Amino acid sequence: MPLSRLIIQNFRNIPSAELDLSPNFNFIVGHNGSGKTSLLEAIFYLGHGRSFKSHISNRVINYEAENFVLHGKIDEEKHSWTVGLQKQRSGNTTLKINGEDGNKIADLAHLLPMQVITPEGLTLLNGGPSYRRAFLDWGLFHHHVSFYTLWASLSRLLKQRNAALQQVSSYQQMKIWDVELVKLAEQVSLLRAEYAQALQPEIEQTCRLFLPELDISVSFHQGWEKEQNYAELLARNFERDRALGYTVSGPQKADFRFKANGLPVEDILSRGQLKLLMCALRLAQGEHLMQQKQRHCIFLIDDFASELDQTKRSLLAERLQNSGSQVFVTAITQNQLKEMQPKKHRTFKIESGKIELL
């Protein structure tokens, strides 16, 4: 569902902006430090209630202001929504959908599914398992209504169990926690495994287009060995968990692993190849959402030309155009965007936080 209008106040170095957006391609051109990434970050914040760059909200509020405000209008063929988010330096957040309070960030995220491709996004491939779990869980959040509730309950119960580990002296005292933990862990792990399996052929097919010289394979690991009974594993590992102060095995250790020619991708791929693989993964996941749920996600692409040659940039542009999704792309010059020539697009120039339509 595309954003048709965006209003920004006091977000990083953007003091004020009102933009009418294309439902197709939106290009943002400006020198380094002009505010290009800040604009993408504002869009992401509106859809997630957080930044993709910093976990500290005070850092995204303009230094002269006490809060930032974001407003957006979402248009679909038969429906439209208005969304608004305000963040205070105190940490308080106000969120409204169609002018009504009482909504949650999850409600906002459901309205605005987004895929982000940034230079820092390579952590999906060379970072820890938490980045790849987040990749899977993003898809599950948008594909399964029940997943968010299950995931939130599991996260809460794991925190409670870890706290209890430091207070109990025998496993019998812990068992009451584990009965529910096993149930939730198995439900979440089954959904992750099914989603990973459904996504696998689309990922591998897209990777063959972007990296035909490599054989890319994917595999899901649930966080403990498949043949092991999780309830028995928790009981057997109790003393070790108690000594360490946290639960060693479980869905909080799950991973979605990628290999190229049988080896971990982070060990053999160049930085440019890793970026291509990341693009392929994000595209495959966004297209899978469209095919299965008839919902388009918004693609945010920062520094489009970086580390991609002309041929790969053209391939990425073609896939994005064919997806029918709304796309936001930043570049230093318009010349870097020459591979992207869709009929319907808007180009914005940003300089020192001031944005104008070209």
Quick structural summary:
The protein is of the alpha/beta class.
Which features would summarize this protein structure in a list?
single chain; 358 residues; alpha/beta; six-stranded mixed β-sheet; 11 helices; 14 strands; globular
Explain this structure to me?
With 358 residues, this protein is an alpha/beta fold. The protein contains eleven helices and 14 strands. The strands form three sheets. A six-stranded mixed β-sheet has the order 7-11-12-3-13-14, with helices on both faces. Strands 2-1-4-5-6 form a five-stranded antiparallel β-sheet, with helices on one face. A three-stranded antiparallel β-sheet has the order 8-9-10. A hairpin with a 4-residue loop joins β4 and β5. The relative contact order is 0.18.
Portion of residues within helices: 40-55%
Sum up the overall morphology in one term. globular
Mean pLDDT: 91
Distance between the termini: 24 Å
**Secondary-structure element string:** EEEHEEEHEHHHHEHHEEHHEHEEE
Helix-and-strand structural type: alpha/beta
Topology, pairings included?
Layout: E1 3-11, E2 14-20, E3 25-29, H1 36-48, E4 67-75, E5 80-88, E6 93-97, H2 105-111, E7 114-117, H3 123-126, H4 129-143, H5 147-165, H6 171-210, E8 216-221, H7 230-236, H8 238-244, E9 255-260, E10 263-264, H9 265-268, H10 271-293, E11 298-301, H11 310-323, E12 327-331, E13 345-351, E14 354-357
Parallel strand pairs: 3-12, 3-13, 7-11, 11-12
Antiparallel strand pairs: 1-2, 1-4, 4-5, 5-6, 8-9, 9-10, 13-14
Helix pairs in contact: 4-6, 5-6, 6-7, 6-10, 10-11
